[in-house]
Structures are given as structure tokens and as C-alpha cells.
């Protein structure tokens, strides 16, 4: 995949933003249709995804990819499609005694264009899992995969381009410089998964653009409590 330039990213963002302004509130049928196409895409290309990820990792059993990436993605799509009508339904809110004649409700609306930054360890699920939520909420998405998974990225970009119009979903290619430029784009929301160090760089890069809120997720240290051979000092052992 050729690296996407900063100008190319801006153009991709503007294309999706213009499309959102033309159709800011997709109905249930349109959202469900996008989720259905995503489901079909994952099923059609799952063998290619598993092979590409194995190539990127050097040796990753295809069953791990099927179990921990393909399966959860399909489950997320099923869940979203099953509950989509209820999620889109306005919610009633109570009125105070002074306004008993008033009916209050909350009508959830799409934000616009969402950026998704993907780490290397689970490059498919951490790209498509957030995409399920983005599409269910009626938004559009730009996806920036990790530069450490080039084979998976190539299959993902090809599959996305064959499934969605670029004004709906698109994949951005590139390394560290492209990731920094991507995080600085003025998205309506940015989803980031990765380390704390990279997360701080993403926050710093997005600050000048006055971007909308960032949803950030990172792996935490794992603590283990010894069982068969306890530490004689009485202290537990921490594994990081």
C-alpha cells in the first residue's frame, strides 16, 4: 500500500464530511445495510485475513485469528443489528413538577466522521470492532492501521474499498508520520487503542486541531497471585 499523504488524508476527511452534511441522519435501513455488508465482507475474506495476519506475525495460528478476531467481529455485528432499532428510538425523560405538561425526550444523532487508530496486536478486530459502533451510530469512518501489519492492511484496504464507498469508510496507509498527521485531523471523534506512550503523542497531536473527544484504550499491567509456591516474604508477585 502506498503511504497516504497529509493532503490525501485531508481530502478523504473532507469527502466524508461533505457526504455527512448531505445526509446527516441515515435511517435504520441504511445503517443495517452497512452492517450487513460489513458482515458479508468479513465472512468472504476471513481466510485471507487469517493468512495475512499469520504472514505479518511470522507465525500465528489461523485458529487464533478466527477465534479472537473474526468471531468477536461477527458477534458484534449481530449484536448491533439485533438492537439497532431500540438504540435509535428516542428515550423519554421525566419532567419536573413545574413542567408536567411538557414531554421530554432524548434523540440520539450521528456525530459525523470518526477516526479509528489501530494497534498491531489484533489488527482486524481492533479496526472492525469500533467500525461496527461507528456504522450503527450513523457515522462515517477513516481507519489508520498499524504500519507493523502491512499484509493485513493491504487485505483490509482492498476489502473495505470493494464493500463501501470512500465517503462512507476508507483506510489510510502509512507509518509513524502518517499516524501523527492522522491524529491531528479535526475528526468529530477519535478512537485510539495502543500504549500509554503512543496515546500521549496522539493526545498532543490532536490538541492543536481542537479535535472532538478521544476514546482511548490501552493494555494494563497484569497482576498474578502465586499459588503453588507462594513468596515466602508474604508479598505477591507482579508480572508486567
From TrEMBL:
Keywords: NAD, Oxidoreductase. Residues 15-31 have a biased composition (Basic and acidic residues). Residues 2-207 form the Aldehyde dehydrogenase domain. Residues 1-31 are annotated as: Disordered. It comes from the Bacteria. Belongs to the aldehyde dehydrogenase family. This is Aldehyde dehydrogenase family protein. It comes from Ferrovibrio xuzhouensis.
Amino acid at each position: 500500500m502506498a503511504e497516504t499523504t497529509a493532503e490525501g488524508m485531508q481530502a478523504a476527511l473532507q469527502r466524508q464530511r461533505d457526504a455527512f452534511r448531505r445526509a446527516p441522519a441515515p435511517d435504520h435501513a441504511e445503517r443495517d445495510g452497512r452492517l450487513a455488508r460489513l458482515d458479508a465482507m468479513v465472512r468472504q475474506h476471513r481466510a485471507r485475513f487469517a493468512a495475512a495476519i499469520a504472514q505479518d506475525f511470522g507465525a500465528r495460528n489461523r485458529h487464533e485469528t478466527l477465534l479472537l478476531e473474526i468471531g468477536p467481529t461477527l458477534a458484534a455485528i449481530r449484536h448491533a443489528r439485533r438492537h439497532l432499532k431500540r438504540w435509535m428510538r428516542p428515550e423519554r425523560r421525566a419532567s419536573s413538577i413545574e413542567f408536567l405538561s411538557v414531554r421530554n425526550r432524548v434523540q440520539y444523532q450521528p456525530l459525523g466522521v470518526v477516526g479509528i487508530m489501530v494497534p498491531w496486536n489484533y489488527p482486524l478486530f481492533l479496526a472492525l470492532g469500533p467500525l461496527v459502533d461507528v456504522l450503527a451510530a450513523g457515522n462515517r469512518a477513516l481507519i489508520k492501521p498499524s504500519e507493523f501489519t502491512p499484509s493485513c492492511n493491504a487485505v483490509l484496504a482492498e476489502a473495505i474499498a470493494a464493500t463501501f464507498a470512500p465517503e462512507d469508510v476508507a483506510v489510510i496507509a502509512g507509518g509513524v508520520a502518517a499516524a501523527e498527521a492522522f491524529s491531528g485531523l479535526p475528526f468529530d471523534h477519535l478512537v485510539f487503542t495502543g500504549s500509554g506512550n503512543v496515546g500521549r503523542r496522539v493526545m498532543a497531536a490532536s490538541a492543536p486541531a481542537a479535535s472532538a473527544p478521544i476514546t482511548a484504550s490501552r493494555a494494563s499491567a497484569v497482576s498474578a497471585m502465586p499459588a503453588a509456591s507462594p513468596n515466602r516474604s508474604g508479598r505477591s508477585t507482579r508480572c508486567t
